[in-house]
Amino acid sequence: MLSARAAIVFALAGTIPGVALFLSGAHFGTVPDTALYGLSIVSSAFLLAWAAEASETEIAQGLAVAFIALIAVLPEYAVSMSFAWKAGQDLAYAPFAVANMTGANRLLIGAAWPLIFFLFWLKNRGRAIRLERSYSVDVIALAMATLWSFTLMARGSITLIDTVIFAAIFIAYVGIIMRAPSEEPELLGPAKIIGGMRRGPRRGAIAALFLVSAVAILACAEPFAEGLIHSGTSLGIDKFTLVQWLAPFASEAPEFLVAGILAWRGRAGVAMGALLSSKVNQWTLLIGGLPLVYAISAGGLDPLPLDTREVEELYLTAAQSAFAVAVLVSLSFAGREAILLLAVFAVQFILSAVELPLPFEIRGESTLTSSDVRRIAGTIYLVMAVYTFVKERHELARLWRSARKTARDPGAVHEEDADLHAHVA
Hints:
CATH topology: A middle domain of Talin 1
Oligomer: single chain
Structural class: mainly alpha
Helix content: over 70%
Distance between the termini: 33 Å
Number of helices: 17
């Protein structure tokens, strides 16, 4: 098994090919070049994740959770913003910015959340993952962002007003959780080695990893994004689909791995909390940043336009987020909910890639198109969300009270949760 020190060395080495390719201007072919740029981005993502975890020793735990969630998805941001910048010069790139953003969000909830539960079940045979009451703030923030996201579809664009709204939600969210009391962090693998250093070397190592990762991401994000599009053409794969799933899967792999290890080691609640925080920042800052970057690139205030497919993708993603909020109203995540999230995600993913014959016609079509699949899957999510909200309606007031109490005094809620855990233990 790869040692923690060796993992750091391999990740550092992995950032080199893409940067070298960028600086030298060498060209081995569209697919090989894209793979090398992708390797550098994935390696940078691992380094960022380890450095961000180690930084828990330097900053308050509440802020560290949001900081880690933000840093861990920086490669994802870089790719999405690269497409948004290109869209400011050529609108043909606009769909890819939305594709990358929606893919990242759906992958997080549809695949990563169920993964955490199944690891938790395999390890403990538990029936549900319980979240601390302080996570009520995360759920409320996600609910607010999700509600606002439905207005994007009605307008058919993402505007600078949306940037302000999403940024305000995220700032308010971070402003609350950063006041939570600190605890001794439990670091794993490479992050444990870095965090265990003396203060001076530790800070130097963290800064160095951030710097190396930032340079690699800045050098590789644009050619990787461009390469994905051309690779789709070369390989005969739908370009939108390739951008939507390959880039997010590559850039978020380290986050999924860390959360999985936490769940396997009996800290499923912490793992779910980290992924929930990631969802909040992706569904606020990531989506809100697109029109801002687009406007700067275009040199105007025009909104980022959405075509029919982009509206459908946003509808499906927002509907999935609505069901995710409904599931967590009770601050618990059970097996049946994990199965539903995974099942709808997997079926939609598979059916979107094929066309099935139908015994009847839908809008004059005798086959089930990918557009039909997106609309149906989104509606299924919404139906399940409404059903779950009605079923858990008595939990809504409790969730709101917990969020308000956490906003007023995060320390008191944290102590009450700790006392409850001690009593249960």
